[in-house]
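Example record for the data management plan.
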Amino acid sequence: MFPLFTELLDLLRVERRVWTIRPYEPLPDLGRKFDLISAFSIDFNRESKRDWWWGPSEWAFFLEDLKRHLNPGGRIVLGLNPGKGGEYYTAELREFFLNLGASVERENIAFSPN
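Corresponding structural encoding:
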């Protein structure tokens, strides 16, 4: 971890939890709900060694799990890392996000308040 990151967490009194995100596994209970859940440079959705990416089923589970951590009116904003060819998601996955009401622009996927 970068020293500046640790110093910012300390300065802002932000609790840090380390957790490996895996398909179909819920996040831990964090003891509270949030107005905003964000993640940037996401790489947990793919296995680069096998060129395997999460599909709609894995994302549906993950997003439903995230919702249980949101306050009413909360938002989810995600930033994906590109694959080897510069792509962020398949056409099927883009359509899946759009059908859920997300705003999709390149690597950024944003879900409006629930």
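Summary line stored alongside the record: DSSP finds three helices and six strands in the chain.
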